[in-house]
Design a protein that fits this description.
Elements: H1 2-25, E1 30-37, H2 41-54, E2 58-63, E3 68-75, H3 79-103, H4 119-129, E4 131-140, E5 148-155, H5 156-170, H6 177-180
Antiparallel strand pairs: 1-5, 2-3, 3-4, 4-5
Helix pairs in contact: 1-3, 1-4, 3-4
């Protein structure tokens, strides 16, 4: 019986891990980064606008007083990740059912039906991960002769893609923290 108790503990810990993975996979990762370019502000903003619109972002408005441009887009969830989470949830719940059967044989075989709850993990992930996102470009005050400084507020992955794809062509430079951080 002690091995069944430890197996139950490990199965419950696995379920807790799945819950935390679901939370992390659908977590809002909006980040703010300051970038500098030696090019004129209009050229940089035009390049950023074209790049964002080519990636499916639509202009959502502007605030001329604060020198801010906003873009809106819909972030899609990953279908392969949703399928994987459903599979892991089903297997984990079925394993929990097997452990419950071993601990309390009088329950019969109905605890195996817990495996039917597994696809709920994929559905939950898809609902939480699909959400509207906003990219905000703010022109910071600086001297026109030294180029332009921008504050970008967006999803972390979008900022990384922007820095990698547009960095060389527009001369964008930041502190590099986005590309060096593991998460």
């Amino acid at each position: 019986m002690p091995s069944s108790g430890s197996t139950l503990l490990l199965t419950v810990l696995m379920a807790i891990g799945l819950v935390f993975f679901l939370r992390a996979a659908s977590k809002d990762r909006t980040t703010v980064v300051d970038v500098h370019s030696p090019r004129p502000a209009l050229e940089v903003l035009d390049g950023l606008t074209s790049w964002l619109q080519a990636r499916g972002w639509s202009r959502d408005g502007a605030d001329p007083e604060r020198q801010v441009l906003r873009f809106r887009g819909q972030v899609a969830s990953s279908l392969p990740l949703a399928v994987l989470l459903s599979l892991l949830g089903s297997l984990g719940a079925a394993c929990l059912g097997l452990v419950l059967i071993q601990l309390w044989p009088t329950l019969g075989w109905w605890p195996l039906s817990l495996g039917l709850l597994g696809p709920g993990a994929g559905v939950l992930y898809r609902r939480r991960a699909q959400r509207p996102e906003i990219v905000e470009l703010r022109l910071l005050e600086g001297s026109p002769s030294s180029g332009c400084d921008l504050r970008l507020r967006a999803h972390r992955d979008e900022l990384i893609a922007l820095e990698q794809e547009l960095g060389p062509s527009l001369g964008l430079a930041s502190d590099g923290a986005l590309l060096s951080s593991p998460i």
